[in-house]
Amino acid sequence: MEATEVRRAVTAAMQTAAELGLAVDDATVLSDSNRLVIHLLPCDTVARVTPTNHFASAEQEVELVRRLARTDSPVAPLEPRVEPRVFVRDGFKIALWTHFEPVHSRVLTPAAYAQALALLHAGLRRIEVPTPHVMDRVAATQRDAANREVTPDLTDTDRVLLADTLHDLGRSIGARRDSDQLLHGEPHRSTS
After folding, report:
1. In CATH, what number does 3-105 get?
2. Cα 73 to chain centroid, rounded
């Protein structure tokens, strides 16, 4: 996001959390990628903020985590002090999550990490959530890449490269006769 949009997103997240009764005096941006991740203080809450015109579905993410939590899957829970849903403010979708301090990789053994991943995949096999076809996602990404308001940081060269790559990818996927491959993190049925 551009700096002005980041400031607007932070303000929207802080105002939303405050209106929901959480104490918010400060905010730290933890990540600025396809969505903004903001640590709100002193309420110690994480806000995940996405522009409303972005193809990523905050609602689907919230619903997925709600269902996975019921399977005892290892997922970060939504903020328990507010209604578990997506809030819309000033052109942004905002979801509020429980904050966890970062864990250093040496604290979690490879075996424990593998076990957590196995539990997550077991949970994903137990739930049913509609997922868009990968070609729908390719089309959405093509629209985002073509829209300078959504992707202002893309140079013309990068925009052309991305458009050509997505076009070729779409053709390649369309020509396949194999079963669909879900994207990482999507619910999936057991094949065994």
Report:
1. 3.30.200.20
2. 17
Distance CA 143, CA 166 (A): 11
Output phi, psi for 145, to 5 deg: -65, -30
Distances (CA, A) of 34 to 10, 56, 72, 151, 177: 15, 8, 28, 10, 31
Question: Tokens in use for 90?
Answer: 């000033």
Cα–Cα distance, 135 to 145 (Å, whole number): 15
Q: Tell me phi and psi for residue 90, to 5 degrees.
A: 50, 40
Give burial (CB, 10 Å; 0-12/13-18/19+) of 164: exposed
pLDDT single digits (tens) 110-168: 898 899 889 998 888 888 877 777 778 788 888 888 888 878 888 999 999 988 998 88
